Amino acid sequence: MTQSFISSSDPNVIWHAHSVDQATRSEQKQQQPVVLWFTGLSGSGKSTIAGALEAALVAEGHHTYLLDGDNIRHGLCRDLGFSDQDRAENIRRIGEVAKLMTDAGLIVLSAFISPFRAEREMVRERLPEGQFIEVFVDTPLAVCEQRDPKGLYKKARAGEIPAFTGISSDYEPPHAPAIHLTGDQRVAEHVAVCLDVLRDRGVLRT
């Protein structure tokens, strides 16, 4: 399997190829590396579903890592705000981390609002074909706002959070997500759907 990389703009920075590659790590783990990219509004259930899916995969003996939006902003992206430019940079960094993790042979679960199609497509283009699976957690705004687990919608409505997705900033839903999860299903049903897709695609070998 050939890995694709975006070259550095500096001609003096040269990619170093290692003898242990993605194919070797994938064979060792008996799985195909892939990124499941969960996108949806705040409160849609992205992190909950991704966490349940990861638990199910680990229980079956698979090698995973879950990247969560809030957790990433505590470290790797702690210097970024929520302007359109900073949001794009946030997703770019996450995409690069996800790419490294797939090179390690992992099944990566990423739970980020990632409101803009161009940002999600940017991540897809950085990965080999077939290793980006877009998962749209399609929960209506009214339901997300009713849940409001972090109290963010309340603050956004009060004008305390500018450019909040779904309220004062746009969300662009995927045109054709690989997996489309709707709010009328239980978490266990969402997990079952995702597992079926992974098996159908040959990601899970055991």
Do you know the CATH topology?
A: Rossmann fold
Number of continuous helical runs: 8
Helix content: 40-55%
Biggest β-sheet: strands ordered side by side in the sheet: 2-3-1-4-5
Write down the secondary-structure element order: HEHEHHEHEHHEH
Percentage of residues in strands: 5-15%
The total count of strands amounts to 5
Structural class: alpha/beta
Q: What is the end-to-end distance?
A: 20 Å
Overall description:
The chain has 206 residues and is α/β, with parallel strands linked by helices. It has one domain: 3-Layer(aba) Sandwich (Rossmann fold), CATH 3.40.50. The chain has helices at 22-29, 46-59, 69-74, 84-103, 117-125, 141-147, 152-157, 187-200, and strands at 34-39, 64-68, 107-111, 132-138, 179-182. The protein has a five-stranded parallel sheet, sandwiched between helices. The protein is globular, with a radius of gyration of 17 Å.
Topology of this protein?
Blueprint: H1 22-29, E1 34-39, H2 46-59, E2 64-68, H3 69-74, H4 84-103, E3 107-111, H5 117-125, E4 132-138, H6 141-147, H7 152-157, E5 179-182, H8 187-200
Parallel strand pairs: 1-3, 1-4, 2-3, 4-5
What would a concise description of this structure say?
With 206 residues, the protein is α/β, with parallel strands linked by helices.
Which descriptors would you attach to this protein?
5-stranded parallel beta sheet, 13% strand, 41% helix, alpha/beta, 8 helices, Rossmann fold, 206 residues
